[in-house]
Amino acid sequence: MELEQALFHYFQFNTFRKGQREVIDSILSGQDTIAMLPTGTGKSLCYQLPGYLLKGKVIIISPLLSLMQDQVEQMKALGEKRAVAINSFLLPFEKKQILQQLDRYKFIFVSPEMLGTELIVSKLKELDIALLVIDEAHCISQWGYDFRPDYLKIGQVRKALNRPLTIALTATATEEVRHDIAKYLQLEKWKEFVFSVDRPEISIGMEIVGHQEKQKRIVELVESLEGPGIIYFSSKKIAEQMASKLRDRGQQVMAYHGGLDQEARVLIQQQFIHGQLNIVCATSAFGMGINKENVRYIIHYHMPLQLESYLQEIGRAGRDGKNSLAILLYTPGDEQLSIQLAEGEIPDREQINMLFHVIEQQQLSLTKITENEELFIRSCGFSETQWRIVANYIASRESMKPSEVKEKFYHYITERLRIKKEKIAMVLEYLQYRGCKRTFILNYFKEKAASVKVNCCSSCGLDLNDFQKNTNLTHANTQNYNWEQELASMLLK
Amino acid sequence: MAISYRDAVFLYCLKQIKDERSIYSLFHLFQGKKSSQTIQDAHLYKLTPFFRALPLITRIELETIVKEFVSRGFLEQVASENFVLTIEGETELNVFQKCVTIPPKFLEGWKYHHLTTLFWERLSLLVQVSSNLINKNKGFIPIQNKQETQEWFKKFLKMQNANRYELAEQLYIELTECLHQEKSIEPAVLVLRLTGHNKIGLTSEQAAERLDMTTTHYHLEFLNILHYMIKTVSTMRNDFPLLSSLVQDVQKEVPLTLSTEKTFQLLDKGYVPNEIAAMRNLKMSTIEDHIVEIALHVKEFELNRYVHPDIEKRIMEVASKTSAKKLKQIRDQVDGANYFEIRLVLARNGGQKWN
Ligand SMILES: [Zn+2]
């Protein structure tokens, strides 16, 4: 019962959720562990609780800067002051300050690109590390939908740190990916836990609608379904358009995307969590690290780029265990947009030609690539994502001849694009599949079909009436605003 | 169709610079570019309030607005990047200004651009934390997540002698007092944005919509109210001990640009511009830019170390008579004066008067 007591002491929960207990037991018995837990089942607790029970530091490698920031904020909000994030958001003096006092912290989040710097690694070496956590560990695999070349460095760093006790966490990973995780982390012996990706409380719907009718259909859905809900888009612009259209119809809705400033992002997330917003029209930037229990529906306006990310996104519904709905709106031809997006994320041949042309012309050494970041971004027109791929690829091949690197790089991007296109083709196959959608997804993750009896998916039968709004709330937003009263309610007791 | 608030601001600024400056000088002004040229122009054309007032503006937006003005007959092109207001443009602007003050009364972009964001971040964090403290709510996400701001805040909180209830009440008293003092401001512009223990503040976009303002109008009103507060609390420290302490640790004067600072130090040690240019391996014209920036900033600047009093007098005569701001016109009429001297005299006299 000791573990339950600790759970209550640190998190005020009475019971573990599915899978948590087994994973935590495995870590506490000193075993390297790979755990695949579905989104929304409290992955972070799997390292936070052992962290409290083990003596020493917990190092967490996390792929997304915004996600990392969220996690640190959440830990701080729960009263854990010894959490810190080391990433490229830090100003030089902040970084220096944190590194000087690194020993003061218990939970240290590190972004993967930081592992490339000698200074960070040598600082980490000085620490007494109880647990190394690789979050979103599928990023280590080329087969993973979110491959990050930086993650390949983790194995080396792990070795340099004397192979501390390690846990790799992921929400979605096929067998191939799990194999890659063990290989690249250089695990020798490990325990693997795979919990079903199935979330029976989420009904999986799909509708084919004409291009012209999509927005109209969204309005219908939003006006009839019980909220709160998230609508995902691939395009910032359309997310904004839709949000403003819905707002005009009286919905409490905002768009959320990478183009917003930091303050607006925090405010919109918090408004949604506090129930001041009923709907968020989001790009994939939204949702990672957001703990909102009562999301009732997830709508996809555009088709996702991979089944893996689709599963993560719909997994944000129904964390309270109540019935929830996922609906994907598909217009034949949408896959063209997906392919365009995938191509845009990867540098193209012309850009690579230009890159090596500039390198040759300026007689730059490959070791000086990152120092000339601005020059390359400008002259080759790289996006941020593209540049990250370029810088990473070249950084690990500095000692090779540029012409050789160029050839290999061609090959590399061709391969990356092929994988991405395969993923898109898989989503398309899923959309066109006439059988049970849930079974299709489970099979994709090498699981057997589970049986959900009512409202399983749109193929098995799905009655949207079961997800209707009970009452039609009208928001009285027109009352006069009294600023003095508002201030008083904030600051006077 | 009546002109929008944003239109009026742009027309106002275009009117100020006449055809003497390129439209892109406004781009630098709105972005708050810290170059000697931009800083000088801001003073010369009385546009200091708008310094860094619209930092998100892009070149393309600016070009679009100008093109639109031309097609609506408000602007006339006189050179590739220079325009003048037509009579129609002037009229539209005048009509608009009868209802709305441009620039907003307290807007002081140049004077406060380095304090504005800081003051807002600290104030909003103070309100949020105070509100959560008195409601005994520990689990909240700070709406300002810059490490700098949070570190400052921790120290700030430690230095407070009052307990949480006194602190929150003091904050309430100072805020209401400050916001009541000035009738021309709309406190909701600020308060809608604040986050408390059970209510998350609005984004600027939401607040604008709520108050039925365009985003540009809202943004400038927001800056206006912040600048009003900074000014008020720092001139009446005794009345606003808590609010004034939010910016106490920051340098009140606008800092010189880094390169200019170096030149300034060398001048102070007695080096002459030629020597400095050689020492620093910079062009003479760059050093001259620095000196003009210093003339704008430093009260103790001795103009006559660089310009003979007679020449200064003649330059001022011509400048005031013709109201010409084009350096060339002045030079043509003042024998023996060079551009550097003219810029320096204008910077000094303009700057002093308008600061
Ligand atoms: Zn089914």
- Gyration radius of chain B, to the nearest Å? 23 Å
**What fraction strand of chain B?**
under 5%
Helix content of chain B: 55-70%
Strand content of chain A: 5-15%
List unreliable stretches of 5+ residues of chain B.
351-355
What is the strand arrangement across the widest sheet of chain B? Answer: 1-2
Helix content of chain A: 40-55%
**CATH fold name of the largest domain in chain A:** Rossmann fold
CATH class of the largest domain in chain A: Alpha Beta
Principal-axes shape call of chain B: globular
Q: Roughly what is the average pLDDT of chain A, rounded to an integer?
A: 87
Looking at the chains present, what oligomeric state does this protein adopt? heterodimer
CA-atom Rg of chain A in angstroms: 24 Å
CATH superfamily of the largest domain in chain A: P-loop containing nucleotide triphosphate hydrolases
Tell me the overall shape of chain A.
globular
Number of strands of chain B: 2
* Total beta-strand segments of chain A: 13
The ordered string of helix (H) and strand (E) elements of chain B is HHHHEEHHHHHHHHHHHHHHH
| Number of separate structural domains of chain B | 3
InterPro entries (chain B): Helicase_HTH, YpbB-like
Protein name (chain B): Helix-turn-helix domain-containing protein
Pfam families (chain B): HTH_40 (PF14493)
InterPro entries (chain A): DEAD/DEAH_box_helicase_dom, DNA/RNA_helicase_DEAH_CS, DNA_helicase_ATP-dep_RecQ, Helicase_ATP-bd, Helicase_C-like, P-loop_NTPase, WH-like_DNA-bd_sf
